Amino acid sequence: MVGWHKTTVILVTLPNPSTDVICLLDDDPSVLKAVGRLLSSAGWQAQQFSDPEKFLEYARIHRVPVAVLDVWMPAMNGLEVQSRLRELSPSTRVIVFTGKDDPRVRSTALNAGATAFLTKPFDDEELLIAIRLALASAT
Q1: CATH code at 120?
Q2: H or E segment to which residue 81 belongs
Q3: Domain limits for position 69
Q4: pLDDT digits (tens, 9 = 90+) for 32-85
Q5: What distance in Å separates the CA atoms of residue 22 and residue 3, rounded to the nearest whole number?
């Protein structure tokens, strides 16, 4: 006698790259350039910022579906930017990346609503997936 098994398949559709602008904030120009190229090659537009205040000014005026923020910057740390961004644009999804993986910083960022926390150097595909998931959850 042949047994039958019921199988359930759940398909998750992740958004494809689109005209959404992904904002990058990092004080290292080489990181901005590399990540900007990665996003461009994946089909997204990247708006790059090295100054947290200029990024926040941009976010006051423009729709920012996803922001990728560095933690350790001289003018203002990424956690402060994340907090101020939440006040300006609660629907913006935040991905935090850093060269120093500090468990307290990771916990603070995630508890404040970051959708992902990546440590540099990160795998390109890991960042692209994090952005797709963030866009899928954006309102």
Answers
A1: 3.40.50.2300
A2: helix 78-88
A3: 21-137
A4: 999 999 999 999 999 999 999 999 999 999 999 999 999 999 989 999 999 999
A5: 50
Task: Please report whether residue 3 resides in a domain.
Answer: no
Q: Is residue 80 part of a domain?
A: yes
**Amino acid, res. 83:** S
13 assigned to some structural domain: no
Residue 120 token pair = 């540099």
Determine the angle formed by the axes of helices 29-41 and 124-137, rounding to 10 degrees: 70
Q: How far is CA 103 from CA 86, 88, 106, 113, 118, in A?
A: 22, 27, 5, 15, 12
Nearest of 87, 35, 22 to residue 56 by alpha carbon: 87
Phi, psi of 6 (to 5 degrees): -85, 125
Reported pTM? 0.85
pLDDT for the residue 4 = 53
